[in-house]
Write a structure and sequence with these properties.
Structural class: alpha/beta
Shape: globular
Strand order of the largest sheet: 6-7-8-3-9-10
Oligomer: single chain
Strand content: 15-25%
Distance between the termini: 30 Å
Largest sheet: 6 strands, mixed
């Protein structure tokens, strides 16, 4: 099950995410678990994908592999054309910082830092010059509607606002792919709606977005739904073939 090129032959773009017979196995013998089992998957620049499945289906393991938070037991993973399957932890960390943005269910903000400071942190690791950090952080927070919350700490923000800070932090290094793992799982209905609308706007600007979710009301914003069950791809449904042109964020 590939991406758009496999389906309609209309795009000359190369995949930004390409998994070839990727498996992730835990344990051995009778205790062996195939969390991901020989997955072939291609995701192209500008796609908006939802990865869905029941609890224990392997969707979070797949997200961890795509996000270079884990390495496959077997198979090959190409990120932006580079084989990252066997890279060291140090090199994977560098790639995560420069090419991938992450949004998690529980925000993962540093509690003693302000919203602005939280967004600045990944730029420090990426080597962005001091003079540009604040300007880019302010712009990222503006994009998620938090220009008036720059100097608030996480404890002074609602859950929805904290998640918007997390999105600003995820996009500030201008990643190739934005990855979100159950990003609305801890939010009320209205806050969740705001978050998925932000993802929709980011996708409209050209960003590649991949969301792991069990919620259909979140997945319905995506243009492609990938179902996983027992570690295998069950279905891969494309709801739109339009790919926006990549534009700077």
């Amino acid at each position: 099950m590939g991406g758009l090129e496999h389906r309609n032959g209309t795009t000359s773009l190369s995949p930004v995410i390409q998994l070839e017979q990727v498996s992730r196995v835990y344990g051995q013998g009778e205790a062996l678990i195939r969390a991901c089992d020989r997955i072939d998957l291609s995701i192209y620049p500008g796609e908006y994908c939802a990865i869905m499945g029941q609890s224990g289906s392997g969707k979070s393991t797949l997200m961890n592999l795509i996000g270079c938070l884990d390495r496959p037991t077997s198979g090959r993973y190409l990120l932006d054309g580079m084989d990252v399957s066997r890279l060291s932890k140090t090199r994977l960390a560098r790639i995560r910082n420069r090419k991938l943005g992450f949004v998690f269910q529980r925000y993962e903000l540093l509690p003693n830092l302000t919203a602005l400071e939280n967004v600045i942190v990944p730029m420090m690791y990426a080597g962005v010059g001091r003079s540009r950090r604040r300007r880019r952080a302010e712009y990222a927070l503006q994009r998620v509607g938090l220009s008036d919350r720059l100097h608030k700490r996480p404890g002074q923000l609602s859950g929805g606002q904290q998640q918007r800070v997390a999105i600003a932090r995820a996009i500030v290094n201008r990643p190739l792919v934005l990855l979100a793992d159950e990003p609305t799982g801890a939010l009320d209905t209205q806050s969740a709606k705001t978050i998925v609308e932000i993802f929709d706007h980011l996708h409209a600007s050209g960003m590649t977005v991949i969301v792991v979710t069990h919620a259909q009301e979140v997945a319905c914003y995506s243009k492609r739904t990938i179902m996983i069950s027992d570690g295998r791809l069950l279905s891969d449904h494309l709801t739109s073939v339009a790919i926006p042109q990549q534009t700077p964020i």
